[in-house]
Amino acid sequence: MEMLLLPGMGLPRGEFTFFMRPDQSMQVIALADLGRINAEILMAPDRYSGKVIELAGASVTGKDLQDAFTKAAGRPIIYKRFSDELLAANPFLRRLAELQDSGLLAGAADLTGLAREFGRLASLEEWLGAPEKRYSTRRSIMTGPRWHCVSAVRRRCAPCDNVLLSTT
Questions:
Q1: What pLDDT score was predicted for residue 73?
Q2: Kind plus residue range of the DSSP H or E element containing 70
Q3: Which of 36, 44, 70, 132 is most buried by its number of CB atoms within 10 A?
């Protein structure tokens, strides 16, 4: 769900643009749920070894996004699909829209089964209203993104020699 608050989606202007049509659904998951589920899977390798599990926490439409953002912002937020002109000019977004239109990006996770297996998963409304999201959601919707200078530092993990990235 965190990808929904990326800069450039139009929230400060009272709209939210994305690559699905207003009536199309797409499954999303909160980063906290994703981390919790992945930790459970990693802690029980015998139980999950060899299994493929499609993860999602909620299924939303463009209309659902419009309603949830409107409620979170306390003012109207209109959902729009990226314009045909933008999709024609941007091969990456065009491909995402094509995959969404074909159903490949819509998601097919068993939301009920996932909740039974891993516990309650956040809905879009719960995620937007969570205490750790309230400030960032309001700021993104009301005032737009704030860019900060972040420098990446490359280090190597001593035990395994993997490259680690951290920000300062």
A1: 86
A2: helix 62-73
A3: 70
